[in-house]
Write a structure and sequence with these properties.
elongated; 3 helices; 85% helix; single chain
Length: 103
């Protein structure tokens, strides 16, 4: 609106044009919002389905937790390490014994 048509009533054609333009702006904003949500969804799916990335993330988290446990409880960490070595040793011994006995 200009200063010359300030006192003039708004016609139906002008109202329809404004509504159409407003609708176009709303559509553009909605489409941009939908694109952003879609991109976020795709990124989340990529994170979930990327197994090597998940493994790297989980192993880094496990290392941090193991170091924290070892710092807070060194005797417990040594006990866990001895237990793991014992279980692996017994398992290897049983597999080798079964292979030798099976001949």
């Amino acid at each position: 609106m200009t200063a010359t048509d300030a006192g003039r009533p708004v016609g139906k054609r002008d109202t329809k044009t404004r509504e159409r333009n407003l609708t176009r702006l709303e559509a553009r904003v909605n489409s941009e919002r939908a694109r952003a949500q879609f991109a976020g969804t795709l990124n989340a799916l990529e994170d979930k389905l990327n197994v090597p990335k998940q493994m790297r993330r989980k192993s880094a988290e496990l290392k941090v937790n193991a170091r924290r446990f070892a710092d807070e409880n060194p005797v417990g960490a040594v006990a866990v390490a001895v237990g793991v070595v014992a279980v692996v040793g017994v398992t290897v011994w049983l597999v080798v014994r079964a292979a030798v006995d099976g001949k």
